[in-house]
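User: Quick sanity check before I run a bigger batch. Here is a single chain. Can you write out its predicted 3D structure?
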Amino acid sequence: MKEYSTQKGLINKVQVYLEDEQHFFEDYPEILQEVYRVIEKCLDEEKVPFDVEISLIVVDTLEIQAINKQYRSIDKSTDVLSFPQIDVSSNGKIAWEEVEPHQVMLGDIILCHEKAVQQAEEYGHTLKREICFLIIHSMLHLLGYDHMNEADEKVMFNKQEHILNLLNISR
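Assistant: Done. Predicted structure follows.
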């Protein structure tokens, strides 16, 4: 397991625990650096007031299908799964004042590299853009956003596009 840690802003830092038994990011180290940049930007945009930890796990289609079946009762593969560790009061609203002010475990992101490659080809954009989009999507889930109804979906999807634009990550 690799670990990434950086001083975020002046007071907060992010620690990412990377488990990549697929060796995906060994082939794409520049995309991994973009992933870290995306994570930091999501935390900045949401004004997260604490040091945080995130687990990023890279799996294949069979493994993500098994995880999806086990935790969501959906027996098919998917591109990314998010497992937040903090309860939200409403869509995108974490009561940070109720969270213990120490290193906060935001949650786990499980990324299927095979689906990401396939979707980048299908959608006609770069693999970097697809991976970054999926990480932003998952980070927003970890930060309390969801897309269970049309209004919440609009909020979340607008935030995704906003962060992609801030980082100049285009199709």
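The first strand starts at residue 2 and ends at 8.

User: Great, the batch can go ahead then.
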